[in-house]
Specification:
By secondary structure, the chain is α/β, with parallel strands linked by helices. It contains 6 helices and 6 strands; from the N terminus they run H-E-H-E-H-E-H-E-H-E-E-H. The longest helix is centred in the first third of the chain and has 21 residues. It is globular, with a radius of gyration of 17 Å. The relative contact order is 0.15.
């Protein structure tokens, strides 16, 4: 929603995407809207976003938190000796971007208006074991959850939609 910190073509693309999304919400008037962004969740004015959406008749906004993010990328981390040929679904690695975990923690402590709910993907895709954070890197079929630093793979998207988002949205509609 707030693209003031972006520049150039990225800003133009985000502004256009946001404009089209808002036009669609205004026209379709859904009861539930799912909102997601890559990062800087804590820098967005979610009360303003909710105000605009509720003004269009939206009853529930599901704000989806960030996915675990890997530097330089999950594939680059998986090819390391520690992870290569491993069948572990969760991994701990220095390549995990801890700033994203901190942002998620901040988001969980924010006060949101009634009708806006924060969904932590970090809580559902990561765990703490002996003080170390492990995050899901692979799915049950051993394919990668993400194709780069944070974008979900096709199977990763299906996993998040089916295993995490579906039940949360279903709760809104009941």
């Amino acid at each position: 929603y707030d693209t003031t910190q972006q520049k150039g073509m990225l800003k133009e693309a985000c502004d256009y995407s946001n404009k089209m999304a808002l036009q669609s919400v205004k026209k379709l008037q859904p009861k539930v809207v799912i909102v997601a962004q890559a990062n800087k969740h804590d820098k967005t004015d979610w009360n303003a976003v909710y105000g605009v959406l509720s003004g269009f008749g939206v009853e529930h906004v599901l704000l989806v938190g960030p996915v675990p993010q890997w530097r330089p990328s999950l594939p680059a981390i998986i090819i390391k000796n520690d992870h290569w040929n491993s069948t572990k679904l969760f991994i701990s690695d220095v390549g995990l971007d801890i700033s994203i975990i901190r942002t998620d923690t901040e988001m969980k402590n924010m006060n949101f208006p009634v009708g806006l709910e924060y969904l932590s993907l970090i809580d559902r895709l990561c765990r703490k074991i002996n003080g170390a954070i492990e995050c899901r890197a692979k799915l049950d079929d051993q394919t990668l959850l993400q194709v780069d630093y944070g974008h979900l793979s096709k199977n990763g998207s299906k996993y998040v939609a089916d295993k995490i988002l579906f039940n949360t949205v279903l709760d809104f509609t009941n």
